[in-house]
Design a protein that fits this description.
The chain is of the alpha/beta class and 318 residues long. The chain has a single domain, classed as Aldolase class I (TIM Barrel, Alpha-Beta Barrel), CATH 3.20.20.70. The protein contains 12 helices and 7 strands. A 7-stranded parallel beta sheet has the order 1-2-3-4-5-6-7. Helix 9 links the parallel strand 4 and strand 5. Helix 2 packs parallel to helix 12 and helix 11 crosses helix 12. The radius of gyration is 20 Å and the shape is globular.
Length: 318
């Protein structure tokens, strides 16, 4: 959730108010000040990227705690290890004259969207306020990205160090190996995020849905389990819950709604997800979430990996 104020010209925290109205927990990273987000959604959770020095990371964790973050999510499934095969969208450092000329054709092809920005009388902010040092200096997206690239990869010791700084609930997001799930719990995690960051880091990587049941088995109720990756409709949520997840995370779907129609667009996406999920519950004859199980699914043989199948797969070893 780090591009909202750049995809729609409305107030930067309109989406936060909508998620609060729909009683949804929100995870937040970079583009709007977390302190402002919490004012509009007290259920907000700060999502930490491993970027910068320990002093800088300590400062960000402290800001999140002071603002009232309900928990901390440590992102381990987005690491600078491989360029995306299809490339990444160009994010300009600033909206100078050269950049405006470059994007003029795109803006003119969407007159309604452009008019909304003109009415706002304010250009999109391309800075990353939650990467600031607290003194008023705020890096651009490009500068924050370079800081992330230059940061050594985290280790289990680093996760233990984060646990020592954060006293509340802690999720490690980016787990898809049962042994890593156990190790994360040993390091202090109270929640496990089964995710491969949308498959962005490694081409043809394992689907987190295939790994979910084995991770649920390894965790054995000692931590909550979230799932994300390709959740676009209520049926995707149902499948994840049936395979053992406690909750699903939704990223791109609501961002598409925000891009198209601001707060109302977010509301319509959430309503569509809820409606399709309710229809599935009706179709399978369930009245509560506790009734959902793997017995509701027809799972192809070999789709769900047994724990023994993970021996040759990559895992965090440092």
């Amino acid at each position: 959730m780090d591009r909202y104020c750049r995809v729609h010209p409305g107030e930067s925290c309109a989406w936060a108010r909508r998620l609060r109205k729909d009683q949804l927990i929100q995870r937040h990273t970079t583009s709007s000040r977390f302190e402002d987000v919490v004012k509009d959604n007290s259920n907000a959770i700060y999502q930490l990227y491993w970027a910068g020095t320990r002093d800088e990371i300590t400062q960000r964790i402290g800001r999140a705690a002071a603002a009232g973050s309900k928990a901390l999510i440590v992102t381990m499934d987005a690491l600078p290890i491989q360029a995306r095969d299809w490339g990444s969208p160009v994010i300009p450092a600033q909206l100078d004259l050269k950049t405006m000329i470059q994007f003029t054709p795109m803006g003119l092809s969407r007159p309604g969207w452009l008019l909304s920005y003109l009415r706002r009388r304010k250009l999109p902010d391309l800075t990353v306020p939650n990467f600031g040092d607290g003194t008023g200096s705020v890096p651009t997206m490009a500068q924050a990205f370079m800081q992330w690239l230059a940061t050594p990869l985290p280790t289990w010791k680093d996760l233990e160090w984060i646990r020592s700084l954060w006293q509340g609930p802690l999720m490690v997001k980016g787990i898809w190996h049962p042994d890593d799930a156990r190790r994360a719990i040993d390091a202090g995690a109270t929640a496990i995020g089964v995710s491969n960051h949308g498959g962005n880091n490694l081409d043809s990587t394992l689907s987190p849905l295939c790994a979910l049941p084995a991770i649920v088995d390894a965790v054995d109720g000692q931590a909550e389990i979230s799932f994300d990756g390709g959740v676009r409709r209520g049926g995707d949520v149902f499948k994840a819950l049936a395979l053992g997840a406690d909750v699903t995370l939704i990223g791109r779907a609501w961002l598409f709604g925000l891009s198209a129609n601001g707060e109302r667009g977010v509301s319509e996406v959430i309503a569509a997800l809820r409606s399709s999920f309710d229809k599935i519950m009706l179709g399978v004859g369930h009245n509560s979430l506790s009734e959902i199980s793997i017995e509701d699914l027809v799972v192809p043989e070999g789709f769900v990996l047994e724990r023994s199948a993970f021996g040759a797969l990559p895992r965090i070893t440092t």
